[in-house]
Specification:
The protein has 325 residues and is of the alpha/beta class. The chain is built from ten helices and 19 strands. The chain has helices spanning 42-48, 91-96, 136-139, 142-154, 170-180, 193-201, 231-240, 262-266, 279-287, 306-313, and strands spanning 4-11, 14-22, 30-40, 56-57, 61-68, 78-81, 84-85, 105-107, 111-112, 119-123, 127-129, 162-166, 185-190, 206-208, 221-226, 241-249, 270-273, 297-302, 320-324. Helix 4 crosses helix 9. The longest helix has 13 residues, at 142-154. The model has no long low-confidence stretch (mean pLDDT 94). The structure holds zinc ion (ZN) (2 copies).
Length: 325
């Protein structure tokens, strides 16, 4: 007998609310988690626009409570979950984990139903207990905050260097806070008032690209991080690097960025990408209050109004939209 649940399902590029979607059946080693809250990010919007082919329950940022687990001690625990599930057997899985396994699935992104639903199945190995002092709202940010933390794994950000971050949206604001923790000389350049206002409140230097001159950044930065999601961000970021500087890309682009790649050769620049990151440091940063996230929530919707919630999240300048499941 299979039970049903409420879920937001993407099929043929169309997102729809279903009241009777089949509940997931956990595989060996997997837990069934009752999702309590979920976050909408750019990836979800891109998938809805058809940039990645996917059919199933959308969503990968969440917190929930373990309903059923193959090991004792998990049931009833509040958890967040890593999104990549590898084969566990290939060289890549064994050496570095599932993030780059060729046979991986990814929650609500690739080959596996996601979290915009009452229940989700995930391997126990993907679950992390959420500390008591981290609220459900804050725990929804663990996954993107982990992705922001991965910046520090990809380049040396020292207190003595100058860093520019392009983009003060959902991901940019998390990256900004993580970068600021290093004590580096950080400038964040954004285009939307809500993000710039939050930065001000956090004591992080933010500049409004619409009305402030940015000439002093040209060829002046040791590291530039692009969180714009726009191909123009790439060229802009390249312009700001000084010789031997490093460009860290958090954006995936639709279309190919136009940029003078000879500069990469002549100035010996490094370009590095960064995707998913470590959950434990992200949970520590939330538990200690070193990174602030709840004020990034712009709107909340019940799961039933999920289609409207994604529309809202896609409006320009709107920060985090959360779903109450
Ligand atoms: Zn995401
Ligand atoms: Zn593998």
């Amino acid at each position: 007998m299979s039970s049903t649940m409420r879920a937001l399902v993407l099929a043929d590029g169309r997102l729809a609310y279903h009241s009777d979607h089949p509940q997931p059946e956990p595989g060996p080693g997997e837990a069934l988690v009752r999702v309590t809250r979920a976050g909408i990010c750019a990836t979800d919007l891109e998938m809805q626009r058809g940039y990645h082919p996917f059919t199933g329950v959308l969503g990968h940022e969440f917190t929930g409570v373990v309903a059923r687990a193959p090991e004792p001690g998990w049931e009833g625990r509040r958890v967040a979950g890593e999104i990549n599930i590898g084969c566990g057997e290939c060289d890549e899985c064994r050496a570095h984990g599932p993030a780059h396994c060729a046979r991986r699935s990814a929650l609500g992104i690739r080959g596996r139903d996601g979290v915009f639903a009452e229940y989700v199945a995930l391997p126990l190995a993907n679950l992390h207990a959420v500390p008591d002092n981290v609220s459900d709202d804050a725990a929804v940010f663990v996954e993107p905050l982990a992705a922001a933390c991965s910046l520090l794994e990809r380049a040396q950000i020292r207190p003595s260097i100058r860093v520019a971050l392009l983009g003060a949206g959902r991901l940019g604001l998390l990256c900004a806070q993580v970068l600021a923790l290093t004590g580096c000389d950080l400038t964040v350049v954004g285009r939307h008032t809500p993000g710039l206002e939050l930065l001000r409140g956090w004591g992080i230097a933010g500049r409004d690209a619409r009305r402030e001159p940015l000439d002093d950044l040209a060829r002046a930065c040791d590291v530039v991080v692009d969180c714009t999601g726009s191909p123009d961000g790439f060229a802009q970021a390249l312009d700001w690097l000084r010789p031997r500087g490093t460009l860290l890309l958090k954006s995936t682009y639709h279309g190919l960025p136009q940029a003078d790649l000879s500069r990469v050769v002549v100035d010996e620049l490094t370009i590095a990408g960064s995707r998913c990151g470590p959950f434990e440091p992200a949970l520590r940063l939330l538990a200690s209050g070193q990174v602030r996230v709840e004020e990034m929530i712009a709107a909340r919707y019940p799961l039933e109004e999920g289609v409207a919630a994604l529309e809202r999240a896609g409006e320009s300048g709107v920060l985090k939209v959360v779903l109450d499941i």
